[in-house]
Amino acid sequence: MAFPSPGSGVYDAATMRLCSPTSIALVSTALVLFVPLGAQSADGPAASQGITIVATPAVGAEAVSITGNAPAAYPVEAKLYAKFSRDLPTVYLSRRSVPTDANGRYNVTLPIASAFFRNAIVTVVVQSLPAGPSARASIIVSAPNIPAPPDDIPPSVR
């Protein structure tokens, strides 16, 4: 979880708790100690291939569409984070496991629930499992639809 800047905590919206760097380090150490040695190996095919990501706002929904390439036949994990202000901590929105096809492509649309504020920065981090390479992309939250005629200023008002 190296996404947040050093010294700052990450607010986990799902559990409504602030995760401090100390608790993140403790959990990371526990994972290293209890994960089987075979799962920690970096020699497998997942470690030899990179991962790509393209994140775009989903038209007509409060969601982000994520596409990209990853090691074939390995799932990827997509995590969403949001920044609303420099005065608020980074908010952990969601996490979802996404399968890749035989060619290593993945495609998913994830809701950005609780990050509906315009101009919020939503960052998507996609990581190949287990503990493979990762990539990230960001979008700025805007209106879910393109302007419609009622949104336009009438010529008589201009």
Please give the CATH class of one domain.
Mainly Beta
Global geometry: flat
Percent of sequence in beta strands: 35-45%
Please give the share of residues in helix.
Answer: 10-25%
State the distance separating the first and last CA atoms.
Answer: 50 Å
Can you count the beta strands? 9
Biggest sheet, open or closed, and with what strands and sense? 6 strands, mixed
The structure class reads mainly beta
Rounded to an integer in angstroms, the radius of gyration calculated over CA atoms is: 19 Å
Along the chain, the helix and strand elements come as EEHHHEEEEEEE
Q: What do you see in this structure?
A:
- The longest helix is centred in the first third of the chain and has 14 residues, at 21-34.
- It is built from 3 helices and 9 strands; from the N terminus they run E-E-H-H-H-E-E-E-E-E-E-E.
- Mean pLDDT is 74; it is low at 1-7 and 26-48.
- A hairpin with a 5-residue loop joins strand 8 (121-128) and strand 9.
- Strands 2-1-6-5-8-9 form a 6-stranded mixed beta sheet.
- The chain has a domain at 46-143: Immunoglobulin-like.
- Helices cover 14% and strands 35% of the residues.
- The radius of gyration is 19 Å and the shape is flat.
- By secondary structure, the chain is mainly beta.
- It starts with 9 loop residues before the first strand and ends in an 18-residue tail after the last strand.
